[in-house]
Specification:
With 81 residues, the chain is mainly α. The protein is built from two helices and two strands. The model has no long low-confidence stretch (mean pLDDT 83).
């Protein structure tokens, strides 16, 4: 007997992730994620957000750059400042 419920959202997310990986191919996934991240940063800046993430590193030069974006919305202050 199990308590609680299954993680249906997690199962759906895993399925969608595997489908995306299959469509793009593992070799193209990193480039696609970084392109989407760059587009997100550009759109955030157009509405006045300040991008806090370091965007200078490039995987093509053997360095790593994350698909995670940290930003401060216009008119707000960060927890540290």
């Amino acid at each position: 007997m199990r308590g609680g419920s299954q993680n249906n959202a997690g199962f759906l997310g895993l399925g969608a992730s595997l489908e995306l990986l299959s469509e793009l191919g593992a070799e193209n996934l990193a480039a696609t994620v970084l392109e989407n991240t760059e587009r997100a940063c550009e759109r955030l800046e157009t509405i006045g957000a300040k991008i806090v993430s370091d965007r200078r590193l490039d995987y093509r030069d053997g360095q790593q750059r994350s698909g995670i974006v940290a930003f401060e919305a216009a008119g707000t202050r960060s927890a540290g400042g």
